[in-house]
# Entry
Amino acid sequence: MKRFVAFCIALVMGLVVLAGDARLTIDGAAVTAKSHCIVLPGEFTAPEKWAAEELQRYLKKATGEELTIVSQATELPAAKGIYLGRATGKAQVDFQKLGQEGIHIESLDGELTLAGGQRGVLYAVYTFLEEWLDCHWYASDCIVVPEHGDFQVVNARKVFVPPLEYRDVNYTYLVSDPVFYVPNKLNGASSISKDPQWGGNVSYGCFVHTMDVLVPTAVYGKEHPEYYSLIDGKRVLVNTQLCLTNPEVLAIAIKSLREIMRKYPQCAIFSVSQNDNFNYCRCDKCTALAEEEGSQAGPMLHFVNACADAVREEFPDKIIDTLAYQYTRKPPKHVKPAANVAVRLCSIECCFTHPLETCPFNKTFIDDIREWNKLTNRLHIWDYVINYAHTLLPFPNLRVLEDNVQFFVKHGVTGVFEEANYFSRGGELGELRTYLIAKCLWDPEVDWKAEKDAFVKAYYGPAAEQVNEYLELLHDMVCLQKDLHVGIYAAPEAYLNNEALLKRSMELFEQAEERVKEDPVLLRRVKLAKLSILYTKLAMLSLNPFRLEGDSLVPTSVNEKNIAQEYLDIVRQEEIARYAEGINANAAEFGEQALFRTAKHEVTVLENDRMKLWLLPTLGGRLWRAMDKATGKEQHIRIEARDIC
# Structure
């Protein structure tokens, strides 16, 4: 009995791997514990050792065979080897070409090479397991390993170096686990593990909007207001930028940057970039330089280059990053980024339901990326994948993800950051988006539709048909409208005011729930996907929540109470904090407001010769509606839960 209990505890903790009976052959040679071993180089790194252990673990789970891990410095206990990292088998590997992240997979005479550098060795192992053994890491809670079947590796050869040096998406609560993000080859600032076995990441020493970090107003503002933006003849110290042509400002910024770089030697990128506002300096020198360069990017890039030049000798392998964002998005006429400078172009103004390259709405962005590509060999992109004003709202952009990444790579982009829901759990289809984004960033030529279908099938099980139909319906209804352009702050009524879409979506999710009602894990996933439609219906109802019936206000919709309660149940279960980027966008409060709207409220009318007012005594005399009798103009006052007295 004690042994059984100990086994169960070990199983729950992941210390015991239940084995399958799948059969794996390499060039006709069956892979068994006696025939093959996993071979590491004589002096192996932490990522190489972990890659070997991961391969051993997954092979045992799939085939039941536990291969021995050995160093190439010792005598091999088996006839054939699976060579990892820098271990030298029969394959001829160009490690210089592979760099840190490239992979070389090759089978020869029943042996296998899974070669790569710091992170590449891990990527080689996971790519082999995925493409030849049908393992998949759809999410941290949805890892698929086949335990039956016949898997053959025949004359395999794959050499691949990812075109993007920086690949990041910041659904922070989803990409914080290396068990997910390393197999899917995300390597950006959002994907951080302190354990070196995971290969590290391309990390930031200081992230964007850093002007107040480098020259803080709290330190210098009182005595040196001239360090900051001059606007309408006055120096601005709140929501400001730096005076980029002031030599004292440059000297302080360089000193601060050097201190930060010394403090975080493990980091690869350090940002010298504008604060998140439009209050750039209008002093004579800054204005003249901007006019000479034809863009506010001119003063910014001169300043950034000077910082980069100052630290290059001490930090030759580090990147200084800046933004081409809003008022600095247009490329300058003359100055070019220094060799150790990365320019991160931001697509914040774009339409995201049509491909960037072919949508007329995005023409100026397309012009900018083409011009920046002429100026630099290190162009990064800051892209956006959700609706920031309504994070829970459907945002039908899945069909453009791959097209956009391919467009980026074609125009010289070497790094992409997909900004997502970094501020709260939840968010529309976060798991699916994260998976698809990771796939597209690693290999822009991936078959995104096949990956989407595979994810939906694995993640939603018997409800996959309904979820897929919902996704196709949503994208058809919105994306096929060529004149409907959807940005990242679009209101629900701007693109989802379609009763047929909402009605059919609800029907599909009800069918999906019925199909998985006996499986609590799958049911939870379906409900979380359904939350977007519940939110949409509540948001649309909030535009006109009440109608006057006799002497009372009554809810516009008789079903809103059920919808609001279901929405609230999901939000609370999933611990979703916000429905938008703003700190006041409380997701639970949004549902409580909707519940409040389902109550009936008596109305008292007061009027004289000029005005007619509709008051709500149950809310302490709250004004609901007012009419100017002379003009007939009416004003409705939105009622929210916080108005309860």
